[in-house]
Amino acid sequence: MIDVDIYNAYFDSLISGKRDECRIILNNLLEGRHSVEEIYSGLFERSLYQVGDFWERNLISVATEHMATAITENLMILMQPKLFATERVGKKAVIASVAGEFHQVGAKMVADVFEMNGWDGFFLGGNTPEKELIRFIDNNKPDLIGLSLTIYFNLPTLISTMKQIRHHFDDIPIIVGGQAFRWGGREEIKGQIKDAFYLESINSLNQFF
Ligand code: B12
């Protein structure tokens, strides 16, 4: 667990745009006993959720929220030595957010967890057009597909994308996750698409490793 004072110092630096201070705090945590998962959930996820909360309450501007997200995405690059140190296992996962879904940090974390466990984690980012996703899957023949959803209104797009994937590829398991499922949708996934699963968090990915 990340010390509360360290977290608070990081959060203050993040919303003040002090990139170098964020970097120093992160590097100290990486040199200490903190795992990638702890940093992803206890530092990056927690701070972005707090950014969202501050934005909702008008305590920070949209510009500050954009800046905090950009800083976080840059800091995630510093995690790379930890991610690629693992021996490759010869498996591939394609991870994306569907068309209309611009939130991509969670999906990137999922792809990183696969990389850290020796898989090739192809990360396609946010707002991935359905046809392009299908084409990418066809070209790369992954062992698993992961889709991330944050905005509940994008659920119909997610479901139609999953149906298209299943239409073209009968046997590649699909996992889905993200904050949208706080509002519902888990049953639709389970009932409508073969070999499709909702996963609560990145910790649930351990079943694949
Ligand atoms: C950054 C941000 C944006 C950025 C995203 C940029 C980017 N590069 O990703 C931009 C500016 C695009 C944006 C836009 C919008 N946003 Co926004 N955004 C956020 C913010 C502040 C952070 C998102 C984030 O990265 N969180 C951190 C990641 C790590 O968390 P995560 O996605 O939940 O992922 C974790 C788990 O869910 C899980 N997971 C995620 N995906 C998957 C997939 C699988 C397979 C698995 C196993 C696990 C898994 O693992 C991750 C790690 O633990 C959130 C606040 C929040 N609570 O998250 C608001 C938030 C999500 N946004 C919100 C809103 C309303 C919007 C807009 C509608 C605003 C608007 N009026 O335009 C638009 C919608 C755009 C769209 N169509 O997608 C609301 C949503 C409210 C709701 N009830 O749905 C939030 C919660 C803010 C708030 N407090 O109100 N946003």
What does this structure look like?
With 209 residues, the chain is α/β, with parallel strands linked by helices. It has two domains: 4-82, Methionine synthase domain (Methyltransferase, Methionine Synthase (B12-binding Domains), Chain A, domain 1, Orthogonal Bundle); 86-208, Cobalamin-binding domain (Rossmann fold, 3-Layer(aba) Sandwich), CATH 3.40.50.280. The chain has nine helices and five strands; from the N terminus they run αααααβαβαβαβαβ. It has helices at 4-16, 19-31, 36-56, 62-75, 80-83, 105-116, 130-140, 155-168, 186-192, and strands spanning 92-97, 120-123, 144-148, 174-177, 196-198. A five-stranded parallel beta sheet has the order 2-1-3-4-5, sandwiched between helices. Strand 3 (144-148), helix 8 (155-168) and strand 4 form a beta-alpha-beta unit. Helix 1 (4-16) runs antiparallel to helix 2. It is globular, with a radius of gyration of 17 Å. 31% of the residues are buried.
Primary descriptors:
Methyltransferase, Methionine Synthase (B12-binding Domains), Chain A, domain 1; single chain; Rossmann fold; binds cobalamin; alpha/beta; 9 helices; 2 domains; five-stranded parallel sheet; 209 residues
